[in-house]
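Hi V.,

You were right to ask for the full record rather than a summary. Here it is.
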Amino acid sequence: MSVVEVLVLFATGLVGGVVNSVSSGGSFLTYPAMLYIGLTPIEAATTTLAALTPANLAAVPEYWPEVKQNKHRYPRDFAIVFLGATIGIGLLFATGAEGFETLVPWLLLGATLLFAVSPRIHVWAGHSAPSLTDGAAGAVMILALGVYLTYFGSGIGNLMLAAFTIRGFGEFLSANAAKNLALSMGTTMAAVAYTFAGYIDWLAVVPVFVGSAVSARVASRYARRLSVPLLRGFVIASGLAVAIYQFGR
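Predicted structure:
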């Protein structure tokens, strides 16, 4: 790689780490950067999953009070995410990710809209559809997101954030803590599996890895000081902006 390519990857890692630590969508910055340096779509997707793993891991300590608050919920839901992530890895090995790329703008747009209305959906679900939060419907939702997480992954943060809000993890910071842990688990699984398959370009991972880890650790410290409406507005605005960009490609 040239010096310019390394700097591009490092810069997108910095920005992606900030975005992922307080909301989601960092992969839509790093994925095009991976294509820019010459990786194939499947290599770009899998390398992005590996490169952004530290962004979610680095943010976890800042959300530890929220993690402890919901620790009774984690074994059940994270076991479902683990199963879905395993299925997603198998599907990628069987089909490849190229055809899935055309669905990404629609998935990101849907995830952003879902996140925007998720608090109202959760209130409704608690009164009218308990199965959505605690039963089979909610489990299927989490399973599907686990599959998508390791199959392609771009835009998964908005989906996971909305799902954990609907699932009953409480306010924004609690749902974001669960999202960071779930994504850390899934991307770590993907990184190990796709390394053995030869899909990941680790030279491209390093600059994004360093940039995202540093920026996510710093950004997560300030997330708690911001108002929840401001954080939610940032997630919605960034999600819509990236969706529009993807539709225009």
